[in-house]
Amino acid sequence: MRIVLGVSGGIAAYKVVHLLRLLREEGHQVDVIPTESALRFVGSATWEAISGRPVTTGVFSHVDEVRHVRLGQQADLVVVAPATADLLARARAGRADDLLTSTLLATEAPVVMVPAMHTEMWRHPATADNVSVLRSRGVDVMEPADGRLTGSDSGPGRLPEPMDIRDRLSGHFDPGADDVECEEPQPLSGRRVVITAGGTREALDPVRYLGNRSSGRQGLALAEAAVAAGARVHLILGTVDVEPPAETDGLRIEHIESAAELKTAVEAAVVDADLLVMAAAVADFRPASIGEAKIKKTADGTDPVITLTRNPDILAEVVAARDRTGTGPTVIVGFAAETGDADHDPLDLAREKLDRKGCELLVLNRVGTDLVFGRDETEIHILASPRVRESLGTETPQTVTGSKSEAARAVVDAAARLL
Fold first, then answer.
1. Which of 126, 201, 227, 315 places its Cα 20 to 30 Å from the Cα of 99?
2. Domain ranges in the chain?
3. What superfamily does domain 2-170 belong to in CATH?
4. What pTM did the predictor assign?
5. Is residue 212 among the annotated active site residues?
6. How does strand 209-210 pair with strand 202-203?
């Protein structure tokens, strides 16, 4: 389908980049039309790189093509996200003072608007009237989500998540529309990707174990993002607190429990892999010995002494083996779960770990009792080793705040660019 994606000037524009990626991965041709204000939040280079199409804002660019009319005439669907209060007002009034509003007047295709603004602006009678009039004209105006807004306030006015917007758009897709200009392959098409996820359990006795708080959600999101990007994914899965996905032609799942089992599985899986993402929360230590029977309280009240020994450094060993033999994954991504302390910032610890491990990318999670573990929202920092920063084409660390699915897509995108 030919889709026009209008972007007006709101902070939520950054989330629309992920919507664009979803639409492109499905094979749609997407022309992005930002307003001048929108470019203050996300630059034209980003829109052009992901859409593969030129980006302009005014009616006097590419005049010979008469783009302010042609884009609307040729579109199968027009989407505006975020649709600010100003954009809703201009659309209701039939203004045509930039390329986006001109396109809205010129199109006969279905139009979907996804509002995003502060709660007071959404509830203002003028905005309510504008939305009512637009809906009466056949425009599909979504309800905004209810949640955290810019600053400390929250309420209705938040842009819905990209996948929720995509699901709404599916109702307007024409199954008979031609798939045009879809020659660009998915970013991981034909690639073999190994992803580790979840926590490990190190047995103390037949009943008890040492473990960690990892839920596995981020690793599962990475597997989903890699499959969506066209990869054949081998997911090595430890303990998780959510239901793992079903295996498909593009997804194979291998279950492990301990760090030793993970090491064996990874070494076998990476032989012909293009990309390794070590997102599993691997125990640094394991009991030096495992009790043959359940450890019980003694009558004399003495406490058991548990001696720990180091687990192998799987990430560092895989990197070293690849560099020594010249075989194995082209790109290796490590993860660092850091709390920091009085003397060390988590970002500094992550940089040290990146240097020590030797991988291409390292993803930092700032973790703690009330951070990241088991939650859908996260904040990650993607760090690149000095030798690949230029190839990556973006400054690092790259910070991504949002859902774990959004974070996963950012990691997959960075790795795909290096490949």
1. 126
2. 2-170, 192-285+305-418
3. Flavin prenyltransferase-like (3.40.50.1950)
4. 0.57
5. yes
6. antiparallel
